[in-house]
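Format notes (please read before filing issues)

Several people have asked whether sequences and C-alpha cells are stored in separate files. They are not. Every record keeps both together, in the order shown below: the sequence lines, then the C-alpha cell lines. Line labels are part of the format and must not be stripped during preprocessing.
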Amino acid sequence: MFTGWGKGGQNGSNPDKFPVGKELGGEKGLVELKNRLADKGVPLFLYNDYTNAYGSNGNFRPNADGIRTAGNEVLQETYYLWVDQESSSDLTVYFINPKVASSIAAKDAERFGNMGMDSVAIGKTGRLLLSDHHPQKRLSRKQSAEEYAKLAGALREKLDNVGFYTPNEYLWPYTTQMFEMPMYSSQYMFATDTVPFLQIVLHGSVDYFAPPANYNANPKEYLLRMVEYGAYPSFKVTSEPSWKLKYTLSNYMFTSYYEDWKEEIVSTYERMNEALRQVQDATIEQRNMLDWGVVEVVYSNGVKIIVNYRTKDVQYENRTVPGMDFILAGGE
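Then the structure lines:
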C-alpha cells in the first residue's frame, strides 16, 4: 500500500492527485517501482480516497461539488495540528458528492490503466456512506451507494486489483482485497465474546488484512488473533524515523520506522505463514470454543487450527498446545 504518491503527498490536493510526486521520480519512477515489486510477486496498491477533498483546487469546488448538510451548509471538518493550532498545517477537509466522486474515479481508472498501474486501494469511500442535501444534487444514502458501486465498477473494469478498507456489503462484488478488517468487538457489556462473523463469511472468497500490527499494544496476542481469524498481517511503515512526523498531520504514525520493525515483520510473516498457507483458499466451517481461552477453527479442507490464548499449556487430542501459541491438526 503506497500512500502519499500523488501531488502534494498524503494530505495534498485530493481529488486532484496527478501528476505523481516528483520526489518519487514522477510517473516513470512509480511504474519502475511497480515493475520491480511485480517481479517479486508483490502488487503495488496506490492509496486513493474518493470521499475527502483536501482544500479547494481546480478539480474540486466545495460549494458546487461538496456534500451539503440538511441545513444546506457545506459539510466540512478541520484537522488540527494540536501542538500549534495557528499553524498553516491545519487542514480543512470537505466531502465529495458521490456523483462527482464517481466521475473522478472513472477518469482516474483510465489514467491508471494508461500508466500501466493495476492495483488501487480505496480508503473511506468503502465504509462511509452519506446523504447529500445539495439543492441541485440531492442524494439519499441509497443513491449514494449506487454511485459508489458505479465508482467501484469503473475501477474494477480497468484494474486487476481494487482493494477497499472495510467495505460495506454492496461493494463486495468489486472488491479483490479488504484492508483493516475488524479484529475486535465493540466491547459493550452485553457482548460476551468477540466472534469473527465477517471472517467466517468471507474466508476463502477474498483476501483480507488486519489493521497494522505495529500499532497494537499486545503483538503476541494480536498474532494469535490474526491466526484464529485467518487475517493476513499488515504493517504501516516509513523509510524515515517516526520522530520526523511529530509536527505534521501524520503524527499519529508514532512507530513507523522500517528499520525498527523489519525483523518483527519477517518473524510475523514466517510464523503466520505456517498456518495460513494451508488454508488460504479454504472456507471456515466451524469455530468452536473448547474452553475459556482455547479456540478450534475448522476449515473445509480438513485443517484445524487450535489457538491457546492462555499462558499455560492445554491438551488437544493427545497433543500439547503451548501457552500463547497455536497448533495445526487434521488435513491431508
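For reference, the curators noted about this record: The chain has a mean pLDDT of 90. Residues 258-276 form the longest helix (19 residues).
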